[in-house]
Amino acid sequence: MKTKIFTITVIIMMLNSCSKDNHYPPPNPNLRYFKFSSCDHTTYWQNTFFIAATSDPIVIKQCLDELILPVNSRTLFPLGIIKQGNGGYNNNGAHNFNWHYVDASWELVEVGIEIYDGCAYSEAELDNYANTIGRYGGWNNRIVGEIYP
After folding, report:
1. What is the pTM (predicted TM-score) of this model?
2. E strands, the chain, where?
3. Nearest in space to 82 (alpha carbons), one of 135, 8, 121
């Protein structure tokens, strides 16, 4: 009898462990997280994507509207204030960026002045973007999806 109970328990545990949930809740339920392609002229994998988060309903709508479009029709890129630290989410795989967009300080735009342009991996320029220029907006950055970290 104990063997049957043990066997049934093990089978139930195995079945539960096989279920897949690809939509993990975000660390901060007030934020939505979006992945952006970056610097398509580089071959370094860590430079190809970054993540931005927002709770601003207007920016969320902008992001979702862009995602409806075919990839080659997406023209908007994020522009806004950045801060030091990855914010707990701005990474590309194992690479953690040392910056992140400040929530409610960025939006998707069609144009930005050249001084805001650059690549997400420009960590050597962090002080310049964060403290001198005050904003970052790489012209080639494009939204590729919503993620659930």
Report:
1. 0.75
2. 32-37, 49-54, 77-84, 91-92, 95-96, 99-109, 142-147
3. 135
